[in-house]
Amino acid sequence: GAVVSQHPSWVICKSGTSVKIECRSLDFQATTMFWYRQFPKQSLMLMATSNEGSKATYEQGVEKDKFLINHASLTLSTLTVTSAHPEDSSFYICSASPNGAGTQPQHFGDGTRLSIL
Amino acid sequence: DAKTTQPPSMDCAEGRAANLPCNHSTISGNEYVYWYRQIHSQGPQYIIHGLKNNETNEMASLIITEDRKSSTLILPHATLRDTAVYYCIVRAHTGANSKLTFGKGITLSVRP
């Protein structure tokens, strides 16, 4: 089945550091990938839609200059949290589906737990 | 906002069928019903989806009412590993509505 891989699984870093999270589709190509954030005991919230070869689409309230998204190939999207602060600590999850967000179900990575000290 | 409503929690005994309800009374004609589950500290796992016919796969069955305003996910023989948060989501397959909007889901606890 479709496999989505995220790296790293968890990261701890100091306040002010920028952190990059990778999302890869291992056995399919994805023109569209999605980035979610989940705070403890809450549901997943969509942050942005990543489009290969074009700019990402951000949800209302998500700062595009703070959460930089690059989707340079059909199998890789990256999310960079710039100048991270403790309030950015969260569980970040990506998803993708074959043929973009079309007829196939989205498959999710195992998430990246980010802790900012 | 999520277009579905689910009870916050339920439990069932191991080995018994778990029937998880979902209401989606404002579903549009082009929207599918999807079910995902999330085991603690993992990414969501796709379970099943359907439009109007009942669907079955190796994980579960999905029963959609004729008016499509509600559905039930059935885990035929629940195990302890099925303890998770289950999300019922309606999603169109094309256009701006193709993204998934997660509600609070239902927490299923399978007891020994």
Mean pLDDT of chain A: 92
Number of helices of chain B: 0
Structural class of chain A: mainly beta
**Helix run count of chain A:** 0
What is the spatial order of strands in the main beta sheet of chain B? Answer: 1-9-8-3-4
DSSP summary, beta strand count of chain A: 11
Our Rg estimate of chain A from Cα atoms comes to: 13 Å
Q: Per DSSP, what share of the residues of chain A sits in E-state strands of 2 or more residues?
A: over 45%
The radius of gyration of chain B is 13 Å
The coarse silhouette of chain A is globular
Topology, please?
The complex is a heterodimer of chains A (117) and B (112).
Chain A: E1 4-7, E2 10-13, E3 19-25, E4 32-38, E5 45-51, E6 57-58, E7 67-73, E8 76-81, E9 90-96, E10 107-108, E11 112-116
Parallel strand pairs in A: 2-11
Antiparallel strand pairs in A: 1-3, 3-8, 4-5, 4-9, 5-6, 7-8, 9-10, 9-11
Chain B: E1 9-13, E2 18-23, E3 31-38, E4 45-50, E5 55-56, E6 61-64, E7 70-75, E8 84-92, E9 106-111
Parallel strand pairs in B: 1-9
Antiparallel strand pairs in B: 2-7, 3-4, 3-8, 5-6, 6-7, 8-9
Descriptive overview:
The complex is a heterodimer of chains A (117) and B (112). With 117 residues, chain A is mainly beta. Chain A is built from no helices and eleven strands. In chain A, the strands form two sheets. In chain A, strands 2, 4, 5, 6, 9, 10 and 11 form a seven-stranded mixed β-sheet that branches. By secondary structure, chain B is mainly beta. In chain B, strand 3 (31-38) and strand 4 (45-50) form a beta hairpin. The chains are: A mainly beta (117), B mainly beta (112).
